[in-house]
Amino acid sequence: MNKWAAFAKKEFSGALAKPEDFKNYRVGVLQGDAKERYLKDLAVTFRVPMADDASIPEKLTLNGREPEKVDIWITGLATGMHILSKKNIKDVVPVWIFEKTDNYLACNSSVPAAQIARLQTALDTMKKDGSYERIVGSYEGGGKTR
Questions:
Q1: Which residues pair with 97 in a beta bridge?
Q2: Is the pLDDT of residue 78 over 70?
């Protein structure tokens, strides 16, 4: 499961309750990503597409008048948590998880069906015993929002 999240400075006091609320903010997003298309479809006019997702956290601000900055950052929850951890950024947090999409594994047509079946069985087993959720949770930092 790929969770899409809005990240902001810890002190962010904005209101995000529905995707249309993004229209009220300058939104940093990875250029060419599905989340950028999602924002375009919502007619969010203050999109700030950037070539590098990892460069966006440093552009977050609480001052809406600060040029070249953004109010929120839209990315995958696990991706955002990984970037924040890697850069040791402590003052940016997920403030809203707003979308969940399934993940898929594409295999070359030459991969034997028996191998694909083993992969599926392993995944099903991990979901049953709880190890899948523990692993995903470790990348999402618990996935808690304020």
A1: 5
A2: yes
Confidence of residue 101 (pLDDT cuts 50, 70, 90): confident
2-143: which CATH topology? D-Maltodextrin-Binding Protein; domain 2 (3.40.190)
End-to-end CA distance of the chain: 21
Q: What pLDDT does residue 137 have?
A: 78
Q: How far apart are CA 95 and CA 146, in angstroms?
A: 6
Rounded CA-CA distance 116/23 in Å is 43
Three-class secondary structure assignment of the chain: CEEEEEEEECCCCCCCCCHHHHHHCCEEEECCCHHHHHHHHCCCCCEEEECCHHHCHHHECCCCCCCCCECEEEEEHHHHHHHHHHCCCCCEEEEEEEEEECCCCCCCCCCCHHHHHHHHHHHHHHHHHCHHHHHHHHHHHHHCCC
Half-sphere exposure of 84 (CA within 13 A, CB side): 23
Looking up tokens 């298309």 gives: 37
Q: Cβ-count burial of 88 within 10 angstroms (0-12 exposed, 13-18 middle, 19+ buried)?
A: exposed
